[in-house]
Amino acid sequence: MTSHYDHAQVQEFWQYVWERDDVYELDDDAVDPTYVLGMFPYTSGELHMGHIRNYAITDAYARYRRMQGDDVLHPMGWDAFGLPAENAAYERASDPESWTQACIRRMREELETMGFGYDWSREITTCEPDYYRWNQWLFKRLYEEGLVEYEAATVNWCPDCETVLADAQVEGREAERSEASERASDEAASREAERSEASERASDEAASREAERSEASERASGNDRVCWRCETPVGRRELDQWFFTITDYAEELYEGLDDLAEWPDGVREIQRNWIGRQEGARLTFDVEPIGDDGRGNGTTAVDVFSTRPETVFGATYVAVSPGHDLARELAEADDAVADYVATVRERGPDEVGFDGVETDARAVNPLTGEELPVYVAGYVLDDVGTGAVMGVPAHNDRDHAFAREHGLPIESVLVPEAADDVPDPDLDLESAAYTGEGRLSIPDQPAYDGLESATVREQLPDEHDAIEDDVTYRLRDWLISRQRYWGTPIPVVHCDDCGHVLVPDEDLPVELPEFVRTTGNPLEEHDTFRETTCPECGGPARRETDTMDTFVDSSWYFLRFLSPDLDDAPFDVDRAAEWLPVDVYVGGDEHAVLHLLYIRFFTRALADIGLLDRREPVEKLVSQGTVLYDGEKMSSSKGNVVTPQEYGAETTRLFLLSAAHPEQDFEWTANDVRGAYDLQQTVHRMVTEFVTEDETRVERRDHDDYLAAEIDRTIAAVTDEYERFRFHRAATEIRELARLLRRYREFDRPHEATYRRGLLTLAALLAPMAPHLGEELWNKLRGDGLVVEADWPDPDRDVTAYERERRLIETTVDDVRDIVDVAAIDDPERIELVVAPDWKYRVAALRAADESEERASIVDRAVDEAVPVDRE
Ligand code: ANZ
Ligand code: ZN
Question: Region Disordered: which residues (predicted)?
Fold first, then answer.
């Protein structure tokens, strides 16, 4: 037995034993296991520090629960479809499949090197047909449930490659906050964008939307968007695309957030903002006439949505989006309108300014009867509210900008409440809108003049037929079509006679054909794939060549882990009823919106289809913070990645867990890493010396009791910290116990049973975070059995009384320190021993160390005087 801790060798050995004994495999008969899940990785290269932190957290918690006696489900898989693999295939002489499989092999090896305790018998890989066939099957079930739509959407188009491009394939701009990019986003490339998006949203929705819009108008000039392959400027095209109608669940997804008590508030707030529930009103404006060709001369109407219906008195125009029915109708008779609509369609969603075109139509203000000009304007978004606004330049920033650009009147109808009811003299409505609350100032409307804005806002819907309470959501339907190869084929056939026909269940999976290099979407090039027969009429038909967004794969993968080999259903419905929810889900906060919203949506949809008996998938969510290096996020693109190999797996995970609370960002410092390394060396040396060299004694002494009590207290404290995911505090407690044990042994021959228990406790408490070391220590001390299968230690006593006493003593320590200082114990080491909180043992240790009688009595006296008498 060497006293040096050879971490590489120790790791390898225990990993071998764990695998040999299948210790992490969960029996299918397990009753209600604890489900601990880390977000599975994209197979886009190698693991980075974020992954390792993520999985160190789930692994520590899974191991802790296992020692607590739970059956634990702790699986791992691969989010294997997606753009990076396809890009890699174009860049290298490879194909997405081989590249992905190579990544998986490498990443799996990295995970195994880290010693994470996964049930590898449940491994899933989303790019394999036995997984993605269930994407197709679920697509069909959602379709039958009315949750799938086929609709025109505007996409990026490269005229040279003659292909549609995902936003991430358009260069010169990152996938950003715009609606379109959020939908068409390609996970890997847009993760950064999502992250910043997420935090912005968290901070202040209204402000960030404003910023977004002004940013958009700044960027309106010039088209710097080019194709990633041929650098041709990219245009826009309207194509029929598949959507999941997640908006059907907008209200429920919003409301449900209130019940997710164990989700971080930040994530819930981000989701609330993303869903963007807004209460307001729908106001109907009559419109006349439609055109001067006499057509549509009858009065028609436009509904607008407003969060501030009380400002209707100040509306000076109405504007509709370029995609609005009225815009299309007006375009037919008006070339200027038609031209404008066409240019807006050509440009990207981030190129919107405050341009627009006036039409011949007039809208009638339902409250004042005033006739207002009707504009078609790019800043009015198609799919927000009703796609139409009443323009109130005096009280809305965007309307103000539009009015300034088009010379429209700015009519104030609302004044802030000044102390003496005098309008604020600083209010200059020419330069900015007043968007706050206040009192209406509309002398020609005596019924409302002088009333508070909030009051009028509530009254109007009750008092006018043209105004109704309404709620809108910012959430858009989920566009799942991707015009690219490396994804799940959408199981649809297009037939000239029958329309789009779903591929029958018995013909699933629609397998991805072999990869071919081409300028466009490889699936378009495969005649044998594309050309097919209609399942309904048997005539010639064309297979859908779009594939699914990879976020579909990850929306239900947590269910596949329950029964990964099932071949007649995506998951075992009974087992799902028993094993769900995911008890703890850990992942990066870049997924706060899309992924975490999609799994909530899927869970609800599956419940409505009758496959699940619950509507929320995850009980507790841990949103892990970022590992920083020199103040920056540690990432391969920044070239500041420290790989775990440099320090050994165990040191890396122990450091990652002990550095900070899982949800906190922290700085990677060589010093602290060294600290984690040293702790292992120290503990290892203590155990080695104990089992090989130490002379122990059998008779008990006073300070043994103190040590025993401290062991119990540490067990209780560490248990509590593990329960709350405060691994960093657990590590501190463990470190303290190790220090105490070392001191104990330095000053006296250790009491055999007590010291052994102390060391065994260290091994057990450390095992969730440093499992290899845990096994090694356990094995040295006991000779058999695995700590991973051991019971979590229990305190021998009720530690609450002891803790109370300890706290009391701690408060007296400062007094003791003074007295001891006066007593001039010259050896600083000794002084420290006396003044530390564990004074009782240390005083005894001083005595036992054969200190002079004189000093011992000084210390005794100091203690007697300092500790209140009523304590006894
Ligand atoms: C008139 C009004 C007056 C509005 C006022 C606000 C203040 P925010 O402002 O972000 O909370 N809106 C409605 N549909 C829209 C569309 N399709 N495209 C662009 N803007 C649209 O969002 C609510 C406001 O956004 C709505 O309330 C509407 O302007 C505008 F003093 O109506 B408001
Ligand atoms: Zn047909």
Answer: 172-217
